[in-house]
Amino acid sequence: MIDQKNRYGFMREVEADLLDQLLAQIKVQFGEIKGIEVGVFGAGTTRGIYRWGKEHDCPVSLIGIDFEQYRPNPTPDPNYNFIAKDSMDAWREIQGQYNFLFVDGCHCVNHSMCDFLNYSPFVQVGGFCLFHDTALPTSLGKQEQEKWPQDHSYAGKPSSVLGVREGLKKLGLLQGYRTDWKLVEEVPSDTGLMGMVLLQKTKEL
User: Fold this and answer.
1) What is the residue-level pLDDT of the chain in tens, covering all 205 positions?
2) What is the CATH number of the domain that holds 29?
3) Which residues form the domain of 147?
4) Is the dihedral of CA 129, 133, 139, 143 positive or negative?
5) How many other C-beta atoms are found inside a 10 Å radius of the C-beta of residue 150?
6) pTM over 0.70
7) How many structural domains does the chain have?
8) What backbone torsions phi and psi does residue 68 show, to the nearest 5 degrees?
């Protein structure tokens, strides 16, 4: 029996609930889940998505992108493909179209931006992109939030590990500046860690 609070690995329950809802929507809309996961790590999300597919009679086919040490063992499903490379390079091996892109790789500003720019063209119109670790601490004032993550460090590490939101802002995805993607939903966090941003592709540029 899977603990419902940990059904997708290192996610809060509210985030796992959003992923449940998203997978259900993708099933209705496309009849299958065909996705790219940037940042596999412990493969908790990977296994959770395949488990959801089996429980809901929905075909799942995922490509996972991460370094070799994060290759899931055993492979979660025969329809799973793992590319053991930095996400900056792995996109060159991607072909076809997908209806789901999950980005949870390197959390620096540049990687967050490049992961979207490199992989979002493979998402078909109507498909979705879900970013993890996008939150700002809600306890901060406006000026402090504007400086986040530049003035912040996490566990003694450089502030770049918390650059996902800054990358999304630079891409214009949070402000509604783009015509090809729209913001669907955001899950906040009080800690500055975790949080999700869900986007949907509305047209090709």
Assistant:
1) 455 557 999 899 999 999 999 999 999 999 999 999 999 999 999 999 999 999 999 999 999 999 999 999 999 999 999 999 999 999 999 999 999 999 999 988 899 999 999 999 999 999 999 999 998 655 555 665 555 555 444 444 444 456 888 899 999 999 999 999 999 999 988 666 789 999 999 999 8
2) 3.40.50.150
3) 4-201
4) negative
5) 12
6) yes
7) 1
8) -55, -35
